[in-house]
Amino acid sequence: MEKPVIQVENLSKAYQIGQIGSGTISKDFERFWQTKILGKEDPYLKIGQTNDRSTKGTSNIVWSLKDINFEVKAGDALGIIGKNGAGKSTLLKLLSRVTSPTTGEIKVKGRIASLLEVGTGFHPELSGRENIYLNGAILGMRKNEITRKLDEIIDFSGVERYIDTPVKRYSSGMYVRLAFAVAAHLESEILIVDEVLAVGDAEFQKKCLGKMGEISKGEGRTVLFVSHNMGAVNTLCNKGIVLENGSIAFNGTVENSIDFYLKNNSNFAHKKWINNQEPGSDFFKLLEVSVIDSNNKVSLNHLISNEVCVEFVYEVLKDNQMFTHGFNLYNNQNIHILSSHDKDSNNLIIPVSKGIYKKRVIIPGNFLAEGEYNCSFAIMRYNPFHVEFHEMEVVGFNIIDEIGNNTVRGNYTGKFPGLVRPLLNWK
To answer: Quick check: helix, strand or coil at residue 409?
Structure first.
């Protein structure tokens, strides 16, 4: 049986809020004696709380990670998924040995190249070329090994013109281009990447994904990848884990991991803002959004053949306003499915008075593929065109295929591919 290249056992990481020491010299000495000399558990970490940022805690000890267990085999590409604050970056820092665990053990077989933040491991005063050699040396590579890869790294990074310039003068985009090129091309067995695709243009993001896919699928190296882009995770990875409040909530295939994360963190068929928390602008406030089914009831789940109605309730705060409405739809991989502007609205012709208004947009049946969706809402002015207000993820819903008497599947039980699934005319 193949042994894992990364094995994580009972891994936990605690942070103390507001102070570094225990408070007194005697407590610091007791902690040192118990943990370093006797090898026992830290007595001042037993009362710590989980890392839930949404609630106010009573302890000054917070467990960023708690009892993490998983393993990764050679050639696997593992996607690490979770909301902000779930513990993803902390986990990668522990795996990269940037910081040490409070309890537990990490067993790693092979050299690790990490790209945790823009320019991790770079010296700002050194040139790009010198930093390539520095990173290679940190990984334990000989100078001739790095030289052999040098031209390939510089070409991939696209910063050849500035390769002998100190990297402190690089833009963030140039920095991350070179940093990724170095991490991806130097001969490490394990590549750890944290949100590098958030920086850089679309062309470079595509290039990064292609290279990481080549590393894991072609070269058999192991990749650990953190991203909020579910499309990128799904394209690159074959395994996934979902972190919630510092613990593993799900561990499985990447498809099942993404489905688990999205079903537990995304869709909500109704949202109402209160207590002056309403999003808006100086003349507009969004009050309430609902997803309504064919029976005119708020519903999260909608049959694929039925139309979906999204209703917006808003307040106009000033008289004589001229504007129109915009609607955007995204799927569960954050792919932008469509945009619609209410260009025929009377609001563009006749000024609107102060008051509360209601607007509906209808998505026809037999159009969207089965899956999870979320919407955004915008208010725009024309002549000249200007986006006055745009709120993301205001509401969400699920499209469900019709299983049973109304199905058109026949014996086919899998998920239909494609972003949309309209009924087309066949002749």
So the answer is: coil
